[in-house]
């Protein structure tokens, strides 16, 4: 969260170098947390990250949720 705060401060100050440094720090943190980069799990299941639920095997489940346009 410190990196995100630094990004906001750099944006408001018009500090391009600070903005770049903050973005790099955010990227490193996301990679360390497993949010970016290669999948950290090795269970052999397909990675459906960055796919719309309706384009995955989870389509039927998703269409039953209140978040779906066709949710029932």
Describe the protein's architecture and organization:
This protein is mainly α and 72 residues long. 47% of the residues lie in helices and 0% in strands. The chain has helices at residues 2-13, 16-32, 59-63. The termini are far apart.
Break the fold down into its secondary structure elements and pairings.
Layout: H1 2-13, H2 16-32, H3 59-63
Helix pairs in contact: 1-2
Spans of at least 5 consecutive residues whose pLDDT stays below 50 are none
* Biggest sheet record: none
- Distinct helical segment count: 3
Strand content: under 5%
For the structure shown, list the relevant keywords.
elongated, 3 helices, 72 residues, single chain, mainly alpha, 47% helix, 2 domains
In short:
The chain is mainly alpha-helical and 72 residues long.
């Amino acid at each position: 969260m410190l990196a995100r705060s630094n990004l906001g401060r750099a944006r408001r100050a018009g500090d391009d170098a600070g903005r770049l440094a903050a973005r790099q720090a955010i990227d490193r943190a996301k990679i360390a947390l497993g949010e970016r980069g290669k999948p950290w799990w090795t269970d052999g299941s397909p990675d459906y990250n960055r796919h719309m639920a309706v384009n995955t095997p989870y389509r039927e489940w998703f269409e039953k949720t209140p978040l779906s346009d066709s949710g029932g």
